[in-house]
Amino acid sequence: MTGADELKRRVEHSPAFILDMPQVHANLQPLQRIKQASGCRILYSMKALPLVPLLADLKQRVDGISVSSLFEARLANAVLGGQGSLHLTTPGLRPEEFAELGGLCSHISFNSLPQYRRLHESSAGYSKGLRVNPKLSFADDERYDPCRKHSKLGVDIALLQQGLPAGIEGLHIHTVFGQTDFQPLQAVITELKPLLTPQSGLKWLNLGGGYLYHRIAGLNPIIEAIRYLKTHIAEQVYLEPGKALVGNAGYLLTTVLDSFDSDGKTVLVLDSSVNHHPEIFEYRRRPLLLDEDIQGGRAAILAGSTCLAGDIFGEYRFDNIPAVGDKLVFADVGAYSLIKAQRFNGYALPAVYLKQNDECGLLKQDDYAEYSRQWLG
């Protein structure tokens, strides 16, 4: 893992988001082993982080990109330049955009049967699929369980027991988040086997994302599953990692602005906020702080600089409480952070850096002109 001290030396601006490209490449290695052993194809799920230098780098290393909207499809297509696959699935397909999407995307997985019936004939040239909800839940928190009760994500498997609609060539399956073993995937394949027959006429299966491949020791279960599916069910199988590639490759550097006592505890106000990583607040997560000493004898609450009372990163332990002006580094914030970040209270977004080898290069610094333009200045 990149050391906090190294980032503090190399990164001038604060707050700053840093993407470590060597770590992204390391995260790709288990996926490349799976691809080599099974013959599957790898898509990057750009919703995790749609940074163009990242997409341009991955263009040479993956087989395509998965997208969720017209803007994502346009950006991915511009980067790919017609090379590789472009897969789309979303609950929110807009009729007025669909003709363009059909021209940009190689594969579209419709989210519901009514959505398919309304739109599939309004554009041509792409391979038609369905997102399927196998009704198997593996997440403890229903906020990120695609198979929760009354789910909006995918066609209920019970509606497909009599077969797939005419024209469907593929199925998209996504059931997990942050998973570190392949048991859920094996269970889903077993549940879907009545649909997954040679007679179904399927050309492809997209097994979705949600698996942290770099944290799974044994890859044989997924290799064997893909080999089975390619031999008996469909010509091609796709994986679409997002967080698995960029999650642990992202860092947020921030600086202590103020320090004071509140009801007997030290509060450190940072120049960042949970608005720069909204999932901290959404999912009540406590992000990893590289500067923490869990055996430290002192503790401090790290708070963001906005007026939101709940703008709190968490309570952390230190040997010595950081002082005003000290820099701190949060880790494992590469996915679903910068893409969700916003300027609440008018605070600038983090500067963006790309780390390659021993260099950290500044890509972008947010400024007042961006803020003013957002609000029609």
UniProtKB/TrEMBL annotation:
Classification of source organism: Bacteria, Pseudomonadati, Pseudomonadota, Gammaproteobacteria, Methylococcales
Entry annotated with the keyword Cytoplasm: yes
Domain of life: Bacteria
Stretches assigned to the Orn/DAP/Arg decarboxylase 2 C-terminal domain: 166-334
General function of this protein: Catalyzes the decarboxylation of carboxynorspermidine and carboxyspermidine.
Keywords: Cytoplasm, Decarboxylase, Lyase, Polyamine biosynthesis, Pyridoxal phosphate, Spermidine biosynthesis
Organism: Methylomonas rivi
Protein name per the record: Carboxynorspermidine/carboxyspermidine decarboxylase
Family designation: Belongs to the Orn/Lys/Arg decarboxylase class-II family. NspC subfamily.
Cofactor: pyridoxal 5'-phosphate
